[in-house]
Amino acid sequence: MVSRVIPVDPFDLVIFGGTGDLARRKILPGLYRRYYDGQMPEEARIIGAARSEMDADGFRDFVRGALDEFVTKRHDKKMVDAFLAKLDYVAVDAKGTGGWDALAKTMRDGVVKAYYFSVGPALFGDIADRLHEHGITDDDARIVVEKPFGHNLETARALNATLAAHFDETQIYRIDHYLGKETVQNLMAVRFGNMLFEPLWNAQYVDHIQITVSETVGVGGRGEYYDKSGAMRDMVQNHLMQLLCLTAMEPPSRYDPDAVRDEKLKVIRALETTGHDDIVRGQYKSREESYLEDVDNPGSITESFIAMKVRIANWRWNGTPFYLRTGKRMKERVSEIVVRFKEPPHSIFEEDTGQSANELTIRLQPNEGMDLTVTIKEPGPGGMRLIDVPLDMTFAEALGEEAADVPDAYERLIMDVIRGNQTLFMRGDEVEAAWAWTDPIIEDWTRREDRPYPYEPGSTGPEEAMILMHRDRRRWRELRA
Ligand code: NAD
């Protein structure tokens, strides 16, 4: 049941920041898996470009180490050697002139040229300028840029303008790896490929929607960066916003990059400003462990948790709130969207028979899949007792173990870059619209010097987040891995 692997066109992919953490953990292992599966043609080449002085063999050793550490399935010595033979390396200084002539000489004509900017955003402008000066871009070349895409609307606009100086929007691939997840695409398949859900997908039948992205880890070694951004900028403005858009958008006329992104943009523009009564911010804190120590800033009022109630002002969703929550050092690592339908308008059964509302859960991790609870009669000779049972659509169960072994988000997205398909990448106006909604909320906290509530590490967040739901006679779905 596994779909055919269609090789992409020959390419030269340059990874700026090829020796960095992201390249080592995600990009290079992902590319190896695509090679192993036959999706990368023999003519393809991957060129590491970073500050470190090393030669191609040094880079190959570095990548071999990365594959040993991060590729578990499909690790095969012969295949690894063949993959490493496709690698090259050029030491470049993004801010200076060193290495650029050598890079220009390395690039071939007649293949897709892709440049992955896996470096801090402060270098995007310099790299774009150098590529242009050295004439190693053409109208068909693509650039891939990593998050964070700006710190607010002003910086996002400036970044968009910097890239637009040398590249057309059709050449810019802004990565949000959540969009590369199998289930996220499946959300579109389920919504728009079936008659079953779409007629019910509106305020008349949906009570509310919950989007949760919880992590068990704290801020780790990223303390300094994280403290300047917090959960709102780091997670809500991008990942949760993208999930909200795909859940709430109108059916696009085609599965085509701009048709999909136009509909997502309309959702962001229809978001009402969320007042502070509908937001709960938190910071993890116990005697042994605290956010403040992790970021080494005793006076920090940045949030490591946020829960919020969001409204979309349009016909489809008027009256159906979306509840978003995300946090670090929580009980379980879970990413899921829960669509909670309304209860039937009238029950023909006796009151305590146990009937409740249907729930569709779209799980991004762990165990990517979907799950729909339906109410049925409890088997047995007793009276009419009802129970809710899950109709489990975990990929492994439905399609076999092999089909569950789907490409990681990064692999899928990089192949889309080579294929020239922007559907799963954020467009510049989408990013700006998301900041335009986020900025006033953050400015309001700053003005009021809003302080986050403390929560126990390993919990489900501050008590106040529960109250946010209880106030509306609703509850968060239990955090279950
Ligand atoms: P890193 O610090 O581990 O690596 C940075 C890379 O950039 C290195 O290869 C370094 O040699 C290169 N570099 C730095 N200055 C340079 C210069 N002047 N000229 C040429 N090369 C230079 O960073 P990372 O964690 O790999 O992150 C890269 C980008 O990806 C960042 O924008 C980050 O925000 C983003 N990102 C990273 C992760 C992650 O999990 N690491 C996740 C999401 C987004």
From TrEMBL:
A GO molecular-function annotation: NADP binding
A Pfam entry, by short name: G6PD_N
Listed GO biological process terms: glucose metabolic process; pentose-phosphate shunt, oxidative branch
Domain (Glucose-6-phosphate dehydrogenase C-terminal): residue spans on this chain: 188-477
Family statement drawn from the similarity comment of this UniProt entry: Belongs to the glucose-6-phosphate dehydrogenase family.
Top-level taxonomy: Bacteria, Pseudomonadati, Pseudomonadota, Alphaproteobacteria, Rhodobacterales
Record function comment: Catalyzes the oxidation of glucose 6-phosphate to 6-phosphogluconolactone.
CC annotations in GO: cytosol
Amino-acid positions noted as binding substrate in the UniProt annotation, renumbered to this chain: H177, K181, E215, D234, K328
Reaction it catalyzes: D-glucose 6-phosphate + NADP(+) = 6-phospho-D-glucono-1,5-lactone + NADPH + H(+)
Organism: Maritimibacter harenae
Active-site residues, record numbering mapped to chain: H239 (proton acceptor)
Keyword terms: Carbohydrate metabolism, Glucose metabolism, NADP, Oxidoreductase
Keyword NADP set for record: yes
Keyword flag Amino-acid biosynthesis: no
Alphabetized PANTHER family for the sequence: GLUCOSE-6-PHOSPHATE 1-DEHYDROGENASE (PTHR23429:SF0), GLUCOSE-6-PHOSPHATE 1-DEHYDROGENASE G6PD (PTHR23429)
Name under which the protein is recorded: Glucose-6-phosphate 1-dehydrogenase
